[in-house]
Write a structure and sequence with these properties.
Elements: E1 5-9, H1 13-25, E2 29-33, H2 36-45, E3 50-53, H3 68-81, E4 95-99, H4 105-113, E5 118-121, H5 131-141, H6 147-153
Parallel strand pairs: 1-2, 1-3, 3-4, 4-5
Helix pairs in contact: 2-3
């Protein structure tokens, strides 16, 4: 049996390292990217059990400024490439948005309208949120408590 594998799309290096630490403590593998272009490339050629997505990411590797629209564009791409749901209407590839933009009500609403499965506010560990619990809950709702189910269900 192998481990669950996450795609982490986060442009802040310190946050990406914090998330990597958390995933490692949970026994999960991951790949991290910091921009829309690399995230799209990876989702087309790699298999992941879930995605942790910052909304405000750089559009391209060489971009200077991150933009919320780049994260939203990736969320829409994910749902086009991986639209499948289980019988409980949960996406087989759960996406948890991890963003400091939760204070912007419109961004939270737009993320759920683009079919995010959950939303965690930055900074992690505040606001009574537990990212590890949210990850486990999304995986269980997708029917992927064990990694082998990710491989058989898509």
């Amino acid at each position: 049996m192998t481990n669950h594998r996450a795609l982490v799309v986060e442009d802040e290096r310190s946050m990406a390292l914090e998330i990597a630490d958390l995933l490692q403590s949970m026994g999960y593998d991951h790949l991290s990217v910091d921009n829309l272009s690399d995230a799209r490339r990876l989702i087309g050629r790699e298999e992941f059990c879930f995605v942790l997505l910052d909304l405000k990411i750089k559009p391209e590797r060489h971009s200077i400024r991150p933009r919320v629209e780049a994260g939203m564009a990736f969320l829409r791409t994910l749902r086009e490439v991986h639209p499948r749901r289980n019988s409980g209407d949960m996406h087989l590839l759960p996406v948890i948005v991890v963003s400091g933009h939760a204070k912007e009500h419109e961004d939270v609403v737009r993320a759920f309208q683009a079919r995010a499965n959950d939303f965690v506010r930055k900074p992690l560990g505040q606001f009574g949120q537990d990212l590890s619990t949210k990850i486990m809950t999304c995986l269980e709702r997708a029917g992927h408590r064990l990694h082998d189910a990710c491989l058989t269900n898509g």
